[in-house]
Amino acid sequence: MDKLCVGVGAGSRVAAADIVAAALAVCGGAPVGVLATLDRKVSEPAFVDAAEALGAVLVGYPADRLAAVTVPNPDDGVATAVGTHSVAEAAAMLAANDGQLVVTKRVTNGVTTAVCIGGTAAVARSVSESVE
């Protein structure tokens, strides 16, 4: 089974446990291969700890790259706050190499998640992209 790429958007006050709970809620027990988000979030302890707890690779994308992705649920409020109309959906799609969005954005306790299907190739590519 392919591992899932979970896109996550959240404010700075979110806890790792909230991110983990939100990711598990949308994945239905399937393994998470990649936790993807806005690039400036990848050094925040909540995101680092959540990725570790999920056994996932944590990757971040700059706002301009996220903004270039066409998503089903763009949000003007998110665009005003971080410079892109989508974090969760766009990050999941990028992490999965523009893979199939199987769960559109969902908000759970202040954490927005979206899920794409992506295999090992998507995980490897995302890791290499996050260090460029």
TrEMBL record:
Start and end residues of each CobE/GbiG C-terminal domain: 4-115
Domain of life: Bacteria
Annotated coiled-coil segments of the chain: none
Organism of derivation: Rhodococcus xishaensis
Pfam families (alphabetical): CbiG_C
Protein name per Swiss-Prot or TrEMBL: Cobalamin biosynthesis protein
GO biological process: cobalamin biosynthetic process
